[in-house]
Amino acid sequence: MLPITKPAGKEKVILFVLALLLPMKSIQAQEWHFGIQAIPVISWFKTDINEVKNSGARAGFIINAFLEKNLKDNWYFNGGLSFMNTGARLKYTEPTYFRFPGYTSVIGAGKTIVYNMQYLAAPVEIKIKTPPSGNFVYYGGFGIDPKVMIRGTADIPSLKINGENAKDEIERFNVGYHFTGGLEYETRGSTSFILGLGYESNIFDTTKDNDGQVIDRAVQKLMKFIFGIKF
């Protein structure tokens, strides 16, 4: 059973959603369509050396608000703002160091480090849609995801460390790419319900290589389950 990451503070999520919903009426009057998505995710690390290994997936979520515009024929542009609450696990085959603000911990061989990361992202996507088939429209898309970390912590169960600030061990900026596919159910009005799947991979290393640590590349990857509504 996958362990679940701790959710972000309720107040933070509620304020984020309200801020995104405020401009909806003015957007509807233009050629752009506004939508919001709730996206459960499963995320993990892929590494490039045997000395550093993925140690299991983590469950998380993304809240994404987006604007969509028809470019030509069945081609669409989609741009958004996302709050991401994700995580992943690593373990080392040899003892290693982990730097927290103010002190350094020594982690035994084979012991797991749990990374918990929150990002603000600005995904952009080019999407193609099929002609309507009844009330259904099918789509596929490709895009990029520039993101900045707003909070990063680590848990080291073997040392009883939980939720410690890990900003010295996680890169603050990253860029990902993603693929999506799914369907939209169009109602009689202008509202559509969205259901889809997505895959995202960071392009750059997620973790830092500090002095005394093995040099590796740990790339975060995510499987997304997309539920949304578009107005």
Key attributes of the depicted protein:
11-stranded antiparallel β-sheet
CATH uppermost class: Mainly Beta
Shape: elongated
Beta-strand percent range: over 45%
Strand segment count: 13
Main β-sheet: number of strands, strand sense, barrel status?
11 strands, antiparallel
Q: Specify the number of helices.
A: 2
Number of domains: 1
Overall pLDDT: 89
What's a quick, concise take on this entry?
The chain is mainly beta and 231 residues long. The protein has 2 helices and 13 strands; from the N terminus they run ααβββββββββββββ.
Question: SSE layout and pairings?
Answer:
Elements: H1 10-21, H2 24-28, E1 33-47, E2 52-54, E3 58-72, E4 75-92, E5 96-100, E6 103-107, E7 112-121, E8 124-129, E9 136-156, E10 161-165, E11 173-186, E12 192-202, E13 218-230
Antiparallel strand pairs: 1-3, 1-13, 2-4, 3-4, 4-7, 4-8, 5-6, 7-9, 8-9, 9-10, 9-11, 11-12, 12-13
Explain this structure:
With 231 residues, the chain is mostly beta strands. The chain has one domain (10-19, 33-230): Porin. Helix content is 7%, strand content 61%. It has helices spanning 10-21, 24-28; strands spanning 33-47, 52-54, 58-72, 75-92, 96-100, 103-107, 112-121, 124-129, 136-156, 161-165, 173-186, 192-202, 218-230. The strands form 2 sheets. Strands 1, 2, 3, 4, 7, 8, 9, 10, 11, 12 and 13 form an 11-stranded antiparallel beta sheet that branches. A two-stranded antiparallel sheet has the order 5-6. A hairpin with a 2-residue loop joins β3 and β4.
